[in-house]
Amino acid sequence: xxxxxxxxxxxxxxxxxxxxxxxxxxxxxxxxxxxxxxxxxxxxxxxxxxxxxxxxxxxxxxxxxxxxxxxxxxxxxxxxxxxxxxxxxxxxxxxxxxxxxxxxxxxxxxxxxxxxxxxxxxxxxxxxxxxxxxxxxxxxxxxxxxxxxxxxxxxxxxxxxxxxxxxxxxxxxxxxxxxxxxxxxxxxxxxxxxxxxxxx
Length: 200
Known about the structure:
Shape: globular
Number of strands: 0
Distance between the termini: 18 Å
Helix content: over 70%
Radius of gyration: 17 Å
Largest sheet: none
């Protein structure tokens, strides 16, 4: 895995982590209603579940890469289309602020449930990785680097949301702020899909 590919993958993961979605809103709602500790625990649960999903995707894609190389061309365009679709959905999404988190669902188990319960997560990883990384050429060090990237990016972004949510709870509850997040993230996701589709 080249430094350029690794850097691109890290940037793509960061973009995915900061975009509005179930994980982000779970951490924010937990921070707003329960405080910093439960919000950070929720973020840890999300990070751990994401690592498991990436491991599953990596195992499956490695087998495909060794057998059906042409399939990655199909995955490339399907993945680009999926990213643009997500961007469009973000633009069209209702600007609804997150609801309060129920007391019994805060913490590590809540984060893990959100991570494993989001079917789009594994589809996103399956479409993103073959676009940027040479899956068949990944050795143990490369796989460890990918998993570490997923974990660190999730911890940093979800931890940041967790720390900020309590102090900025009023701002996160406004529809204007949610709409701005949706528009910025949606535009970035659409642009990413276009760039990927245009790559040779």
